[in-house]
Batch of 3 targets.
Target 1
Amino acid sequence: MPTSIRPGDVLAGRYRLVDLLSESAGGRFWRAYDGVLQRHVALHVIAADDRRAGGLMEAARRSATVVDQHLLRVLDAEREGDLCYVVNEWGKGTSLDIMLAAGGVLSPRRAAWVVSEVAAACVVAHRGGVPHGRLSPESVLIDTSGAVRVIGWSVDAALHGLPPGDPAHDVQDLAGLLYAALTGRWAGPSPSAMPPAPRDHGQVLRPRQVRAGIPRQLDVVCEQILGSTEGRAHARGVESALDVQAALTEFVGDPAGIPEALLVRLVHRHSPVVLPGVPEFEIKDPDVPTRAPEPDPAPEPDPEPEGEPTQASLPAFIAEPEPRDDDAPTLATPAVPPPEPEPERPLFAPDPTDGGPVRRARVRNEPGPEPADYWPWETDAGRVTGSVPVYEDPDEADDGVPGRSTLRLAVLLLTAMVLLVGIAVAFNLGRGRTPLGAVPDDSSSQSSSSTPTTAAPSPVAGITATSLDPQGDDGEEHPEEVGDALDGNPDTAWSTLTYKQQFGPAGLKTGLGLVLDLGSSQQVSEVDLSLVGQPTGVQVFVTDAAPTTSPADAGLEPLAEVSAGAQEKIPLDQPQEGRYVVIWLTSLPSVSGGFRGGISELSVLS
């Protein structure tokens, strides 16, 4: 096999190699881009002098005669110089082996439907005398619409150096596919990477012996095809692909909803960011404990009880603790604050300037304590004994405090005034007037209510996009994938090629990107991106004319420039008005074998 072919090379003037997917036994499997059909294709390449080359070309010609929607068709098969290659349709989805490994076995109806679709393809191909020859879970693809597609019809067997197969071999593989979908084990004669089915005395166990809950009808189909020779001889025949299809179609009945249900089982291989594990924190006694620096030696204190003394643990009768070093871990007993001095005179009662008596606690004129039943009028009739409370005349009590009555009156008047104002305001508001009683002006209220508020940015609808690769051969980069960046599905993406050199002045290109057509001139304030990999260098431009060259060559200045992560909101320095938004990638994330990036979702906020 020549070693000169690499990503970017073009075979036969139309097939540009994009990604090397696998390499085995001198054969290479590529994802390529057909410049004539403007879509991706699968490309198998081997050396022209390889012993398998003749069989591969013959198998490709036989496979091309089978016309069925389930097959990923052979599009081309040629020898060019010292290379021999076969071109197939490109399928996007999840193979059955990966689906089972990632999500477990299928339900009986879904398993039967998938295998019945493969059997339908076998029926068409067997009528033309073209068996597959190597049916396995790796050969069955559930695509992104939920349809079942079969990979490598007749070609896969030739690539592995196998002779042309026969229909009976395919029928056994069909039973193996049903067995695998129901149990997660492979029982067919063709090789597969799935775990093999368990056996007893050399015979494959029935599906119901491996996993409970499998319907008897499906168990019988597997048993009649994969069971012992004696069992098959006495069984009612399921001998052809048509028999398998009929039995499974009868079991499934109406298949409505099954393709849609299989979409949730598709495996999307995005490389997750794996952070290093953080060990749990454990409290351990270290071999050599860490200690604080020892304080200066201090006099040995009197023996203390075990444990560090605290303020709460000191006995209450100790008047003064023993002197200790300042660094000792005890708490200083706070000093008791002195009592506040007694005020010299009551508040609001300054000493009279005329030399009158100071207002203090009530003191009687006559010396000595008054009796408990004192009555202010010195009459025998006024004396009351017992526990009846004594009330003082407030006017008499206030006579000795100058200004107190005036202050009290002012407070009462102020309270009454506030109350009246509050009642008036509430009354006016209740009548639909202003607080002062005036009739409100409708124009002023309408103008105030109609004052516009600043609206939050909203996504622009109806965006269309094209790829921009001015330094490429055709000026575009994967134009068939551009719609994946606007379909609302984060699992699909517009992606770049894999480049050996990073973008920049020293690289093959300075950049590439997407041109978004907003449909009309609109104000752009932010661009939100979901990117494949990180970091990705991104520049954002807004213009009124769709560029056909790089933004720098077109004389455009970037309105925002970031090194973006997987999810990035890019606000513009200033909102800009224009019809076209250019998302320009100036650097790509590093991947195995080079540099590659992409955009899975984007939106423009106005």
Target 2
Amino acid sequence: MKNKSKIRYDIILIIGLLAITAIIALGVRLTEKTGKTVVVSVDGVEKYTFTLDEDLEFKIEGYEGGTNYLVIKDGEACLTEASCPDLLCVHMGKISSQGQSIICLPNRVVVEIRDDNESDPKEFDAIVG
């Protein structure tokens, strides 16, 4: 009989610890600033930088007069219009996570998400061996 109650208390303790951990993780996640920026490069040169937190519509002058329209809304960025013939960049959809990008080859425009909070890319996360 004592064995069953001991197991029951162990389960309650584990569930309680998991709940506390989840609450702390959620609190940290909600209070953390995104720090994500949208970087626009034209012909290999970084031209514009915007924060992902601000809503805006912006016309990008691409290569040889080509144009793309960048929209940042609700923490997501996308190209809504482009002067390129295939419109692949428009169909790539919305991006919001670090490392994602939208590329328009004819206009030589690259829109990418970078995380300002991320450590130097030359630093190691961990060494295993």
Target 3
Amino acid sequence: MGSIKEVSAHTEHSSEMSTSHEEHKETDPVTVLSAAQAVESLDYIKPSPWTPSMFRLYAVLLCAYLGACTNGFDGSVMGGLNAMTSYLQYFHMESASASTGLVFAIYGIGTICALPFVGPVNDRLGRRAGMFTGATIVIIGAIVIAKSLTTGMFLGGRFILGFGVAFCNISAPVHVGEIAHPYWRGTLMGIYSSLAGIGSIMATWVVYAAQFLGPSGWRIPLWCQLISSGLLFAFVWTLPESPRWLVAQGRLEAARKVLIRYHGEGNPEHPLVKLEMAEMEAQISSTGSDKRWWDYSELWKTRAARRRLLCVLTMATFGQWSGSSLTSTYLPVMLQNAGITSQQKKLMLNGIFTVLTFLANLCGARLMDKVGRRPLLLGTLSFCVACFAIIIPTSKYATENPDNSAIANTSIAFIYLFGLSWYLAWAPLSPMYIVEVLDTNTRAKGKSLAQLFTAVASTVITYASSPAFAALKYYLYAIFIGWDIMELVVIYFFWPETRGRTLEELEEVFSAPNPVKKSLEPKTSQTVMNAIHAGKRDVEMTENTNAV
């Protein structure tokens, strides 16, 4: 830990070179020293998750978590419907065909079309407005799809759903990441992803029950899409706004009140409140590109920004192409390839899978703050490669020997293990890591760009997987083995660790010559100095550029 004396000396030297700025950009020596002292104070005050302030925070996050439930339900309901004979017969489809691929893909196309609007809504109107907009559109889409009489109407409803979910997918995790307590950020954001599992569980078991409700039973799960989106619609305006968004609007006192209430136990002098306010005031610009809806240049104009963008776009793509889309969307088809032909058994196994993945997701949410982001990603991805290598021969043998239940059960076991491994790390980390590596002025637009890459990657893989399964069957998994090995190399050399730092302190990591190496070094008081002065410098450069 760097000493306070060293920080004080460095601060006094830096103050000689400082000039007058607007209130929210000034970083006087006292503020810097106070922030550095706060770091050392926090080293001796381990935050408790059971305080009144934290329980207030949990209540706030619970409402934002409804955005994850909405995404989880909408994203999983089609996987179950795709195994229902009544649904397939009504629209004259097959479970693995080009028409089925289009039904899945149109959801992603709707998401892509929404993305130019998501960033501006979040930056100009706030994170709550983004969640409200998404919930409203999802409600409209759910009504259209549940009342569908033709394939065209069904596709239109899926498009509207994808459009609305794009707002929820970006606004909700950004709000959670920006308001979460920094000590528990990994866990709290991981729980956000886990709550998508609740939506998935609801979807799969409602579909399972709907198969017994007659030829129109397939509509029941579609009506249930209104539940989480309706609750989000009703309660989103009861939430506090993101303190980082408030600072970006120049509303410092409002931001400080949010931090005092949810991070500082009601104490304006709490060390964490001082630390976060000092770092946010130094780093967040009130005239940044988030005020100009058309300007995405801050995402790549500096070396540090480009390193952030590399992490964002590769995470967005890897999360879809590592093989997870197969288990989330085409699990019934994978079970068919493993020798399971009964509709009831496929739906039951699909339902059990969602429960297990939810539990894995919860475990992963806690492990992120225990073992770190990088070890969890690298370990689980390596295990996924091993699972695919085993699934190929066992699925082949099970298909050729349908009477051999032991080999079929082995295939199913490793299909489940693959999914559980992925949900242990990638499901909780995918939205969280993207939010962490972006700074406040680019977070909404960067998350929108990540969602664009996610939607494109998801659309390609879901549309291509259906005919690929029909042509290649279990040999399709070999392609994912090669791709996942490439992902391991990229993660090891280019993705820094984000555990144990505030969002603002990650500026020091990405500004370093080797961000991965820097991220593995312990945090010190000097980290606060670097975060504040680097942030102040970047804000000045940005605002000087904007003035020109």
